[in-house]
Amino acid sequence: MANILNILILPTYSTLTLAVVDISVYDPTTPSDTPAPALEIDVPGFGIVNPTFVMEETNIYNSTDLGITTAGNETSIPDGIYCFKYTKDVSVDTSVEKSIVRVDKLQERFDEAFMRLDMMECERAIKTQAKVTLNTIYFFIQGAIAAANNCATIESQKLYMQADVMLDTFIGSNCGCSGNNYLVNFH
Q1: pTM to 2 decimals?
Q2: Band of the pLDDT at 154, cuts 50, 70, 90?
Q3: pLDDT value, residue 33
Q4: Please, which residues have CB within 8 angstroms of residue 148's CB and are 6 or more apart in sequence?
Q5: How crowded is residue 81: how many other Cβ atoms within 10 Å of its Cβ?
Q6: What is the rounded distance in angstroms from the CA atom of residue 130 to the CA atom of residue 117?
Q7: How far separated are the first and last CA of the chain, in Å rounded?
Q8: Is residue 184 predicted with pLDDT exceeding 70?
Q9: Does residue 107 have a pLDDT over 70?
Q10: How are strands ordered across the β-sheet holding 58-61?
Q11: Can you give the residue ranges of every domain in the chain?
Q12: Helix H segments across 28-178?
């Protein structure tokens, strides 16, 4: 039986961490002196890193593990398209490659805007328009994820940028709850 390599990138619901799970099926007769597994992560804007990877475990990485910061100075991990390559034994050239789009920072901003909407006192028409705008932004975020999942990286980046611009505008306009917006759009 040969090793069947596979990894899974799990959501951590945090801008500070990235989770990679080894879901491979390993040949139990593999000698214990085989080389250690290697994980290669192409971090958008920072290049390729090779963090420590433990077989058959959930591996949690922060900005220091990904070569973005030094220990004690951890920060949010950037959004963007991440490419992963997991290799167990380079001598037999077996590996698995995956890519994902990370949208955690954008999603965090979206969540904040969404929560502000429910707490504001707005005219009904303005609140309805704000909900439509938020649904549109959410649609673009999901579109960016779907495009990345289907190897359409350029489309994914366009959809991400559109969601980001729309979210900036939405937040910058105080989420549409100004008397001027009501007068211009609904009178």
Answers
A1: 0.79
A2: very high
A3: 67
A4: 81, 99, 100, 101, 156
A5: 19
A6: 7
A7: 72
A8: no
A9: yes
A10: 7-10, 18-22, 58-61
A11: 7-102, 104-186
A12: 104-119, 124-149, 153-172
